[in-house]
Structures
1.
Amino acid sequence: MNTKMKNGPKPKAVNYRDVLESKAEEVRRSMSAQKAAQVVARLDCPSDEGDLSQQHHEEWIFLNRNTIDMKLLREIADALHRLDHGSYGVCLECEEAISPKRLDAVPWARYCVACQEAIAHRIAAGEQVDEYQAANR
Ligand SMILES: [Zn+2]
């Protein structure tokens, strides 16, 4: 966060579209960087036993990270969709406004803090919930 006061007449209004789009760009870039690193690693990898299990381990981490990134991209796309339809910043569960503080922290948040916690509890209790916010980080 930088404290810029000079640009624009509306100092408080955060442009969530910009925030979301640059975040999506950042995730995409990190995904392709990982992919490139993976390919390079494969090319100069002499495959004896030890390396193989190491490689499997790295592959697993890579896939796992990728899944999280895919989820995040989907959440960001959803948030942009909500921006287009004027429903951005409204909790999908209770339809109350999500606090700006929360949106600053998690611009793709779908639920207010209270609902997010309630959902987390339901998941912890073993309930199946459509919840792609587990990727909050
Ligand atoms: Zn709510």
Note: Residues 89-127 form one domain.
2.
Amino acid sequence: MSNIQDIKPKLGIPRAISYYNNFPFYYGFFKSLGFNIVISDKTTTKLINDGVKLVVSDTCLPIKVFAGHIINLLDKGCNTIFVPSIQSTGYKINNCSKVRGLPEIIRNIINRPFRMIEPTLDKTEGLGIKEFCFEAARQLNIKDEELIKSSMDAGWCMYNNFIEMAREGVSHKEAMENAISGKRTKKKIELVKPLSVVIMAHGYNLYDERISMNLLKKLEKMGVKAYTSLNITRQNAIDSIHRLDEIQYWANELDLTGTAAYYMLNNKVDGIIALSAFGCGPDSLMVDEIQYHAKMRNMPMLHLTIDEHTGEAGILTRLEAFVDMLSRKKRKEFQKEQPKNKAVISKINEKRVLTNI
Ligand code: SF4
């Protein structure tokens, strides 16, 4: 007897680009529309190479990886694939040209037959989430407005659960897995770590373990607490950009400038780590901007750039050196505070003696 999942139409979702921030919404929406969701496999060296072969060499790594994920879905026999065109997420708050033109890039480089579901999100042109979802449904030949609306609600429900868990400090992986299976977990109480950093990076670079070379796990092993864009609200990020007297140029800038600015301005971390793709124009400007403000505030910053040739050993060496420098700096600052601390303690003792008399 065939499983009900087998008879539902399949919809492929590449585990790349907007997947890392939006998948719970996509999953809830398309599942509720009646699709069997197929996700591409985790990024591997083979998958990267499959993408690299198709794209011109100076394209950034995340787009090469995206192409590799399309090939992976086609190899799995999935012939309807979701490739959204996310143009702008606010009035004149645009994405980079590669994210905006993703369906066109894929159409021009992949020479295999498949059907692309390519709705447009462009708030500058009045195409919000509702229009985006209705367009996706129309391309999938679904016209039932009530079904589309209730599927949007299902998407929001999963997405909000994901965001709330992530904000409470549940790891990205756990929050994602729980959200799509309708579960809710609270963050386990963790010991206070001696050092902390904020990571400025796009979700597709940071949470793809192959691309980031497991940066978050490496920091955890070194005893460093890492904060990311998922730990703060969108409004926190926007306000922090303005407090630096800067403006938001790009749609996905909140993951970088907004997050780094928030933690830097609130003096919550010992350092900043920027993780960006080699050849990414927007990232290079945003990293420069934060580097300038970090220098003014004497906040140490490490910039890691990645491409398909980046080796794990090089990343680890630079990370270890940075963490070592942060702990030496912190120790020095603590020692400088010692005389002050001693003076306070002796004043407290003096008072105690007088009170006793
Ligand atoms: S923002 Fe940069 S890394 Fe991301 S897709 Fe655009 S060019 Fe590539």
Note: The first strand starts at residue 10 and ends at 13.
